[in-house]
Design brief:
By secondary structure, this protein is of the alpha/beta class. The chain folds into 2 domains: 3-165 and 306-355, Medium-chain alcohol dehydrogenases, catalytic domain (Quinone Oxidoreductase, Chain A, domain 1), CATH 3.90.180; 169-302, 3-Layer(aba) Sandwich (Rossmann fold). It is built from 13 helices and 18 strands. The strands form 4 sheets. Strands 3, 5, 6, 9, 10, 17 and 18 form a 7-stranded mixed sheet that branches. The protein has a 6-stranded parallel sheet with strand order 13-12-11-14-15-16, sandwiched between helices. The chain has a 3-stranded antiparallel sheet with strand order 2-1-4. Helix 7 links the parallel strand 11 (184-188) and strand 12. Helix 6 (166-176) crosses helix 7 (192-203), helix 6 (166-176) packs across helix 12 and helix 7 runs parallel beside helix 8. The chain is globular, with a radius of gyration of 20 Å. The structure holds zinc ion (ZN). Zinc ion (ZN) binds next to helix 3.
């Protein structure tokens, strides 16, 4: 039984939300309106949400459940209500909702790793409802929500929305892979996170940025965003191409933004000795090749990005237009079209779909 099924019904109001009942079965339904449950909660009215590449994993393999799963973990919105213990977030605030909720006070939050928060968790999980909806309940609102300094940001909504996941995730890959001035970088994957990883690598001063992907439209966008080279070959051929482009030794930094076995195997092979791999693709494979990383002194790191920690650093660049991660959105739909949005992303018709409830 999912937590939100047990949430008390606070009013007779309903809202529309996205439910996935099993692989390929996404529906928009009327559900009880989001409301305060715990005193640390807030409720936000969703201004923009979106569909994530990671939503496609359950779209492929979710097992049937009677209650379905409430989908969505990325949103910006307006705070509509706050619980009695909420101190810093106020009604009317314009906020970014990071994909993980966190208390902001535990030892991991203090260290900037909010995705390991002792009291935290993930939106759109079995415990907390998702953001592909008209409204969403935010646990631990003071620690979770990032209050934006202004509501006057019309053209910037798409880029602000990426701070809830994909831009922070691409940045995390770059941080973990130790991108810096003069470094040679490869980004494995040309999805929205990969494209944001290109933006992050450029922003952090990389000298060479190789995008690895197979979609010509996405590669063209990657080049506009800062990629210097593209490798469309996969497997051994792709590895050889990267080595040729880097003087034979591979790259200092690999940003692995896919999460399947071949992508990780490629990442291991193209990292130069002493290099580092930042993994942010949710892994759907048993393990990595330890021998190569050991003998090449390659650092392997990464995991769920603490995007909450990165907003302070990334937001000024978004507000100034220095980075435009919102360019990863190539389709805008209403809530009723969300099932088709999943289909379009799954069939690679769309890079990333924005939802305007
Ligand atoms: Zn915490």
């Amino acid at each position: 039984m999912f937590g939100y099924e047990e949430e008390p019904r606070l009013s007779n109001l309903t809202m529309r939300a996205t439910l996935m009942y099993q692989a390929g079965d996404v529906r928009i339904e009327n559900v009880p309106d989001a409301g305060i449950i715990e005193p640390a909660d807030a409720v936000i009215r969703v201004t923009r949400a979106c569909i994530c590449g990671s939503d496609l994993w359950p779209y492929h393999d979710l097992e049937w459940s009677e209650n379905g799963r409430r989908m969505g973990h990325e949103a910006i919105g307006i705070v509509e209500d706050v619980g009695g213990d909420v101190r810093t977030v106020k009604k009317g605030d314009f906020v970014v909702m990071p994909f993980a909720f966190s208390d902001g006070t535990c030892e991991f939050c203090d260290e900037g790793l909010q995705t390991a928060c002792i009291h935290g968790g993930f939106f759109g999980s079995t415990d907390v409802a998702g953001a592909q909806a008209e409204a969403v309940r935010i646990p631990l609102a003071d620690g979770t929500l990032y209050v934006l300094p202004t509501r006057d940001v019309n053209g910037l909504l798409p880029s602000l929305l990426t701070l809830s996941d994909v831009m922070g995730t691409g940045h995390h890959a770059a941080v973990v892979a130790k991108v810096g001035p003069g470094k040679k970088v490869a980004v494995v994957g040309d999805g929205a996170v990969g494209l944001c990883a290109v933006i992050a690598a450029k922003r952090m001063g990389a000298e060479q940025i190789i995008i690895m992907g197979r979609h010509h439209d996405r590669i063209a966008l990657a080049k506009e965003l800062g990629a210097t080279d593209a490798v469309t070959e996969r497997g051994e051929e792709g590895v050889e191409r990267v080595k040729t482009l880097t003087g034979g030794h591979g790259v200092h930094s690999v940003l692995e933004c896919v999460g399947n076995e071949q992508a990780m195997a490629t990442a291991v092979e193209i990292a130069r000795p002493g290099g580092a791999i930042g993994r942010v693709g949710v892994p759907h494979y048993p393990g990595i090749q330890p021998d190569t990383t050991f003998y090449n002194n390659v650092t392997v790191g990464g995991g769920p990005a603490p995007v909450r920690a990165y907003i302070d650093e990334l937001l000024p660049d978004v507000l100034e237009g220095a980075i435009q991660p919102g360019r990863v959105f190539d389709r805008v739909i209403g809530l009723d079209e969300v099932p088709d949005g999943y289909r379009a992303m799954d069939q690679r018709e769309a890079i990333k779909v924005m939802v305007k409830p």
